[in-house]
Structure formats: C-alpha cells, structure tokens
From TrEMBL:
It comes from Stigmatella aurantiaca. This is Predicted oxidoreductase. It comes from the Bacteria. GO terms for cellular component: cytoplasm. Gene3D superfamilies: NADP-dependent oxidoreductase domain (3.20.20.100). The lineage of its organism: Bacteria, Pseudomonadati, Myxococcota, Myxococcia, Myxococcales.
C-alpha cells in the first residue's frame, strides 16, 4: 500500500483546492443503503481524516439532515483536517419522499444557513447544487453561491450531474472547482462530451459511484430501505448479466493479487490527475480496502485491457431509473 508520505495531493481544477486523491462520501451512513451504525460511521470518518483524506462529501438531504448532523459530530474537534463538500437543492418529505429540486437564489441561502448550523461550521468548502433546477437559470443559482463566497460562507463552487452547456454558462459566472458525476468501469458516459469540456475549462472531477453502488464489489441489496433495489442494474436478469461482468473483474483483480474493489478504484485513479474518486465507505474495513487502491499502478496497456474486458455495452440496465435519468442535465 502507498504510504501517506508518498501520496501526492490532486488539484480540483484550476481554481479549486488541493485534496487527498480520494474523498469520503457519507451518503450511505444515513440509511440510503439500509441501516448503518452511527458509532462505526463516526469512527470511519475519524479514520479517514487520520489517514490523510481531506474531502468529506455529503448532501443536506441525506437522511433529511441526519448526515450533516453526523458529520458535524465527527469533525467537531478536527475541523482543520476536513474540507466539506455539500450538495443542496433536493426536496424531501417527512415520509422520506423526493419532491423535486429548488435552486432559486433565496433557496440557496436558506439551504446554506441550515447546513452551516447542522455541521457546526462557519463556512462550507465546496457548495454545489445537487442537480440542475430546470425552472431556474444556472446563472442565478451560481450567482447566489458567488454572493456567499464573497460573504465568506463558501470557499469554492462545484456542480453535480450537469452537461457541457450548463458547465460553460456556470463557469462564465464564477470559476467552478469540480463536477461531481458518476463514473466507473461500467459508467463511462462522461468521457464522450463532458470530460473534454472539463479539461478545456479547467474543472476537476469528483467521481462518485466508482463501484457502481457496490455492484463491482459484489455487494447486494439489503432490503426495503436500500434504494438500489429500485435501480435497473440491480434488478432481475440485469443483475444476473452484471454479475457475470463482476466475475470478469474478479479474475482480473486476482491476476494482480488485489480485490475487485481496489482494481475498480485504481482504474478511476489512473484516468488522470484531475480525477478524485469519492469512496462510499460506511465501515473502517471498507475504508482500509479502498485506500489499498492507492498502491496499485496500472500501465496504459493494462488500462486498455481492463476496459476491453468490461465494455459498457455489456452492462445491463441504466445507472438510474428512466424517470431519474430524464431529470439529469448530464444525460441530455
């Protein structure tokens, strides 16, 4: 495994902060994948910070605020070690329903005020709308966050799941540090039109879903509280087909004496210095395994062989359901 002293930070775009090559995504600590243990979650956040991870990613709607409160407790005595990336805009109901998005300027400031309070901090390091609000020009949303940068409540502005046109329009208002978007061996869509624009504009990538929600690690759904049970890739014959691909990944990983999880993360890490994978570890053992990917070096020929062995055309099912995909600006 690579030691912390040998790990080179990565720059989030031309205008963003330098961060550890991996980020810790905390969504799964607030029920999205079924029950979780708060004590273990906090211990995992502590372990991540102690081992050098700097960027902690959350959303104010994860667990209807639970995730931010959890992170706030975890970083109370170690705020100086953590850079906080917060998504906002998704509307939730008391029954945990999803009720659209709101990225109006007034809503931006309202969401931010509550996030600062729940996290127990005086500023957010990277603040980003979770999705494009089709009712609000992106210039208005970014302009409102820019005002919060000027006021000192936000340090950098990010985006999530948006396409080339939105990226250009947002960048014209204020420099964007990074785009958070799903990217993995089996979700390579951004390579065609989005990544070239990011390179042109000097915007970094925080890649989530690098294990395709646990599919590539062999994880299975846990029941009613696990939202993956609604995702096409985890359903019926799609899952059967995808498990065959996971078998291929296992073989490739065994040849390198690493785990499938580590090989999948190492592939993302090897795709460029502007790429920072967001690791959704809920437990310290998962975190430890993921960090092992930092010690894996993949040559250009190895990358080509891995990609040829797991072609996206062989993946059964989309990364989201049809309704959710239709809402994504990045899919247009």
């Amino acid at each position: 495994m690579a030691t912390q002293s040998k790990i080179t930070p990565r720059q989030l775009g031309a205008h963003g902060p330098k961060v550890f090559p991996m980020a810790l995504g905390c969504m799964g600590m607030s029920g999205m994948y079924g029950p979780s243990d708060e004590t273990e979650s906090i211990a995992t956040i502590h372990e991540a910070l102690d081992r050098g991870i700097t960027l902690i990613d959350t959303g104010d709607f994860y667990g209807m605020g639970h995730n931010e409160l959890l992170i706030g407790r975890a970083i109370k005595d170690r705020r100086d070690k953590a850079l906080l990336s917060v998504k906002f805009g998704a509307l939730r109901g008391p029954d945990a329903s999803w009720n659209g998005y709101d990225a109006r300027p007034a809503a931006v400031k309202n969401f931010l005020a509550y996030s600062l309070n729940r996290l127990g901090v005086d500023h957010i390091d990277i603040y980003r709308p979770a999705r494009l609000d089709p009712q609000v020009p992106i210039e208005e949303t970014i302009g409102a966050i820019r005002d919060m940068v000027t006021a000192g409540y936000v340090r950098y502005i990010g985006l999530s799941e948006v396409g080339p046109d939105t990226l250009r329009r947002a960048q014209a208002v204020h420099p964007i540090s990074d785009l958070q978007i799903e990217y993995s061996l089996v979700s390579r869509g951004p390579e065609a039109a989005i990544f070239p624009v990011l390179a042109e504009l000097g915007i970094g990538v925080t890649a989530y879903g690098v294990l395709s929600r646990g599919l590539l690690s062999g994880s299975s759904t846990t029941g009613k509280g696990d939202f993956r049970s609604y995702l096409p890739r985890f359903s019926g014959e799609n899952l059967v087909q995808n498990q065959r691909l996971v078998g291929v990944l296992k073989t490739l990983a065994a040849d390198k004496h690493v785990s499938p999880t580590q090989l999948a993360i190492a592939w993302v890490l090897a795709k460029g210095q502007r790429m920072v994978p967001v690791i959704g570890a809920r437990k310290r053992v998962q975190l430890d395994e993921s960090l092992g990917a930092l010690g894996i070096e993949l040559s250009a020929s190895e990358l080509k062989d891995i990609e040829a062995a797991l072609p996206p055309s062989e993946v059964a099912g989309a990364r989201y359901g049809e309704h959710q995909l239709h809402q994504l600006d990045s899919e247009r």
